[in-house]
Amino acid sequence: xxxxxxxxxGFLPVLALAGALPADEAPMAPVWKISDADSTxxxxxxxxxxxxxxxxxxxxxxxxxxxxxxxxFEIDMALMSRPETxxxxxxxxxxxxxxxxxxxxxxxxxxxxxxxxxxxKMSERFFDSYNPGMVYLLLSSLEAAHHGAKPxxxxxxxxxxxxxxxxxxxxxxxxVAYQIxxxxxxxxxxxxxxxxxxxxxxxDSGATLDxxxxxxxxxxxxxxxxxxxxxxGFTPELREVLLTERNRNWIPEIEKALTTDRDVMFLVGAAxxxxxxxxxxxLRDQGLTVTQVSNRAP
Length: 298
Fold this sequence. Notes:
- The structure is a single chain.
- With 298 residues, the chain is an alpha/beta fold.
- It has one domain (4-88, 150-187, 204-294).
- The protein contains twelve helices and six strands.
- The chain has helices spanning 59-67, 77-80, 83-93, 107-119, 132-146, 155-166, 176-184, 188-200, 205-218, 221-230, 236-258, 279-285, and strands at residues 28-35, 40-46, 70-75, 170-174, 264-269, 291-294.
- It has a six-stranded mixed beta sheet, with helices on both faces.
- Helix 5 crosses helix 7 and helix 5 packs parallel to helix 8 (188-200).
- The longest helix has 23 residues, at 236-258.
- The model is unreliable at 1-23 (pLDDT under 50).
């Protein structure tokens, strides 16, 4: 259960009678909140890439969006829509001139990666110019896309589009350069190991996506942590770089939002919110009362 798209965990309005739930909707949502006298901060757990069959979204997301006055994403979504951002990502994820991925990975790994690309009817040299960290990210995206998961169905794209239409301000917690630096900072031996583990389980990737989205929609924090975080094959070093360090960085931003008189929705990958050293636990360690949001209309 080591497929890298586990950590990439994240449109249709949900109609429900007051106090009632759709037959297949869980009582609780993967959304938490902190309130004081004049504001509420919502922590909404996203799966960045979703499939048509994963919709509709839990109804609490729409209600949370309607209540909030500002949205905060992992990365500023306005920047993500600019062509120059794609160019920057490509530059940051590419190897220096004259280097190839085969200079960093062994022959057996390269053969497996080329075999994977061939099975997906892509150029077998697609990965050659990318650095190991970017290959890790691209493999996760390609495999998710193979099963119909699309960023335009994900929560970030959905709610950013609504922000633009509704004139609500939004911003990001991190830059593209910072996020890619987390990947580029990983030891290439570690990345090679993780990629091989992922390739071992490609045959089960559809079932893995099913288990991730089911746990997410269940609103069960323990189940979500078990599927996305605790059982995902993270080494302590990998978990620190990709999750825990970033979680700690976000705590002051969340606390700052609580000092305003605005209701703010933080929409971040669900893996960041649950489990040991997740954002929810870190905020509770600060003495804040964090409660989970119900899918039931108030």
